[in-house]
Structures are given as C-alpha cells and as structure tokens.
Amino acid sequence: SGLILYNFYKNIAYGACPFFFGFYSAFSGQMLYEKLIYLLYNITMTSLPIVWYALFDEQHRRQDPAILQPARSKSRRLENEEGEEQQLVRSDKDNYLMTNPMFYKIGMRDECFSMELYTAWMAYAVWHAAVVYYAVYYALTDVGVAMPDGKEVGMWLAGTTVYGACVSVVNLTLMMRSHVYHCLGVLLVAASIASFFIVFFIL
Questions:
Q1: First-to-last C-alpha distance (Å) of the chain
Q2: Are 15 and 162 spatial neighbours (Cβ–Cβ below 8 Å)?
Q3: pTM value?
C-alpha cells in the first residue's frame, strides 16, 4: 500500500508544478520542463529508493529484544505446566510477527489503503507542488536572480530548478516516511538526488 500511494504521490507532485505554471502561461501548452528530463524522473531520479522501501522497510522488527525477552521468559514458565503445546510459542521467538496476528488487523480494517488515505496523499502532493513551484517562482522573480553576464534567468533554467526541487522533496519525503534507516537506503536517496545535478550539468 505504501508503494502504491507513494507512486501516486510523486507523480502528482511532479505533474502539478506544470499545472501551476499554466496560470502564468495562459495554458498555452508551453512546457515547464525540458523534454529529456521528463523521461528521467521515473527512470533514474525516483525509482530506486521506492524499490528499496517496498522490499526492506519494516514497521515492526522481526526480532525486537525489548519485546521478545518478556515473551521468552513467560513461555519458559508455561512450558513446565502445559508441556508440548506451549513449546510452539517458544519455537516462534524468531518470528514475532507470525505469533502476534493483531498486527495484521490494519489490513482488514483498510487502515493501510483507503479512499481517505488516497485523498490525503493526493492533497499532500498538490501541497508540495504548490510550495515548490511558488517558492522557486518567488525566488526568481520577486527576489531576482541574475546570470553572471547580467542577463535574467531564462525559463528553462527556472523550470529545471523547479524540477530539481521536486526530485529532492519527493525523495526526502520517502526517507521521512521510512521506519528502517540503512546506509544503502540512504545512499540510494542521495544518489537519486545527485543524479539530477549530474543530468543538469550534462544538459
């Protein structure tokens, strides 16, 4: 469910920025992003972190010493009284989730994926897109940024700046939503954000 919602989120956030730009271009069809980087968003800049998240992120650890230790000591006491039947509980000490089915109730109650969650994620995406677009717009127009030769920043550079900010925000959002922080997962997020700058300097 997290994989599905996040994929909707990152694409809505990415696509809503050109929508806001439409109010300033009279919805003429003028593109905000350069054509090539449209293709790279889902291929190189936001693909690997969500794959890592979907495969390896865990809300509850399979083995949590703080939780498992009382359970083990209790099973030892009950084993002497009930014998072989209680032995099954002790043998599952390495499978804490399997011996605690209450954690799976959230799926039956639609607490992981529902219309309310979908709507909230879409609103979250539009909000992030609005903040990214108008922050860049304000910085490049009201504050004013000039090139070294004295010329104003062109539309393509402004659009690329919006694109880069969007890439950074959606990747950092995924990191904030993660429950497990591993060096490889953090590296994939950093590499995804860095790939934007590599492409930017190549272009």
A1: 36
A2: no
A3: 0.72
